[in-house]
Amino acid sequence: MSNPDIRSYPDVMQACQAIANLVGKVCEVPSTLIMRQNSDNMEVITASDSADSPFHSSDNVPLGSGVYCETVISQQQALHIDNAFDDPQWHDTPDFKLGMIAYYGVPINWPDGSPFGTFCALNTVAGKFNQQQTSLIDEFAAVIEALLKQVTSQEQLRVLADYDNLTQVYSRSRLLQRLQHEFDRYQRYQAPLSLIYLDVDHFKQVNDNHGHGIGDLVLQLIARQLLSNQRQTDFVGRLGGEEFLICLSDSQLNAANQQAQRLLQKISEIDVEVKNQAIHITASCGVAQANHSDQNIDQLIARADKALYKAKLAGRNQVKSDT
User: According to the UniProt entry, where is the signal peptide (predicted)?
Assistant: First the structure.
């Protein structure tokens, strides 16, 4: 899981702002910053609200610009600059050009140890930050890291709630939330909306004959095909057991039928071998497009399920649609 965006957590952002403001006032400096290192830049996440500060939230400079914080992150240790005028290595840096000639910054890391960025104080007046000031910055850097740990834990809980642990597609609850959103959009704008209800053929036999471990593997391989063969606007979730539902926004019935056929072809190509015995995997699909008869999302799902039942009755490994 990639590290979360702390901007998605307003309570954490408010705490960061309060920390920056407090440290800025106690240290009597124009700028106190929480900086984040992104893939291509250094970004101001939070800036103290001093009227004299030239920094603002979301300001950023490209990596390699030489800002003081880059040195902190690369060396993973505190950096203390009494007077940048005395050291030519800082004279071309953006901070120096803004008149920030005194600096104290410490690294901030994610719980896994990877760099987040820095917590730092900058001053336009030369002089050493005293021990009380540096200790305060150190202590609040630890508080910020604790907030990052909190954010990471909350994000992990969100992922557990939103995604099926076995297949990594949407969980049933998240799937139904997204479907409701798409159905509301359909009702508001009459934008085409189609569903594919997919069921793995004879899945109980796979479990009974080869064990639930192989059954789980089959579901994972099928989910991988569903995810890798969808458009950015589509999404897929697991309703339960061996049943999946694929939502195709802005898709007419004919296009949804074609997509279902492609998915069945991909699934039939899945290669599973147990004790030198090949297991042939197939699935059946029911397809339905939202229309005026659907008063709610449950009715649309029911029509797709009805079409799936027809596909099973017709011999499985095929697509049927409900019109």
Answer: none
Looking at residue 1, what is its pLDDT? 59
User: For the purposes of burial, counting CB atoms within 10 Å of the CB of 232, is it exposed (0-12), middle (13-18) or buried (19 or more)?
Assistant: exposed
Question: Do residues 167 and 219 make contact, with C-beta atoms less than 8 angstroms apart?
Answer: yes
| CATH superfamily placement of domain 6-162 | GAF domain (3.30.450.40)
Dist CA 197 CA 298 (whole Å): 13
* 89 vs 155: CA distance, rounded Å: 40
Q: How high does pLDDT run on average in the chain?
A: 95
Q: Please check whether residue 31 is in contact with residue 100, taking contact to mean a CB–CB distance below 8 angstroms.
A: yes
Q: Which of 70, 155, 182, 242 is catalytic?
A: 242
Which fold would CATH assign to domain 172-322?
A: Alpha-Beta Plaits (3.30.70)
Contact 297, 304 (CB under 8 A): no
70 is catalytic: no
